[in-house]
Amino acid sequence: MLIESLQNEKIKRLTRLLSKNQDRRKAGVFIVEGQQENERALHFGNQPEEYYICESIFNGKLPDSKIHFVSEKLYEKIAYRGTTEGIIGIYKLEQRNLDEFKPKQDSAIIILESVEKPGNLGAILRSCEAFGINALIMTDPRTDFYNPNVIRSSVGCLFGMNIFQASNEETLEFLKINDYNIFTTFMSDDARNIQEKNLKTKSAILFGTEHSGLSDFWKGKGENVLIPMSGTIDSLNLSNAAAIICYEILRQKLEK
């Protein structure tokens, strides 16, 4: 049966799940839009519950799972990206516990405190995956790893990554137990060039919110670092700053 109406009960549920983090958490699911993103979700072992597919747009192999077919006009209304690719999947959400993560001796992790913008989080996830960062931790988060916009802007790369949510206190305890070198990114006169620091061993680099940076909780908890710049501005967009430091970590590890 082809679904064509926004008033269909299945579509009402889907739109609630697409728009409300609390509804997704309550249902224990996350939503994936796009062919590449759904392929990655499956590749890394996520369990699908059902799919909504527009046959006139979708050009991939139909998944081996429960499928609801929707009209092109309806798909344009429910999808984040309009008519692109024609597939939305609903997957079971599995909780990830930071205590279960066993880091290697050269482990590098990025920690984001109270990040707010899904687009920034998605871009940072993409940089972490590209440059071989071993894990990303969000502390006291104001957005959700499985926000559809995060999945979209990360191009689904988060599905193959070690990602965790924890409090500041839990994260600091984890870093101490596992002997990480902690680097903070406060804007202050005591900050030192990140390129002068040894990032080949266990390293954790912390970033704060887009507007106010790290909270006072992290003051004095690690070495304060900065990215050297020659322009007149004194800061970078959060996702750009994270990308540069992720690359610096990889650059050092590739040095002979």
Automatic annotation (TrEMBL):
Domain of life according to the entry: Bacteria
Coiled-coil positions: none
Domain tRNA/rRNA methyltransferase SpoU type stretches: 109-247
UniProt entry tagged with the keyword Transferase: yes
GO MF, one annotated term: RNA methyltransferase activity
Keyword annotations of the record: Methyltransferase, Transferase
GO biological process: methylation; RNA processing
Residue ranges constituting the MRM3-like substrate binding domain according to the UniProt record: 8-89
Entry keyword Methyltransferase: yes
SUPFAM superfamilies: alpha/beta knot, L30e-like
InterPro entries membership: Alpha/beta_knot_MTases, MRM3-like_sub_bind, Ribosomal_eL30-like_sf, rRNA_Methyltransferase, SpoU_MeTrfase, tRNA_m1G_MTases_N
Family from the record: Belongs to the class IV-like SAM-binding methyltransferase superfamily. RNA methyltransferase TrmH family.
Protein's UniProt name: RNA methyltransferase
Organism: Epilithonimonas hispanica
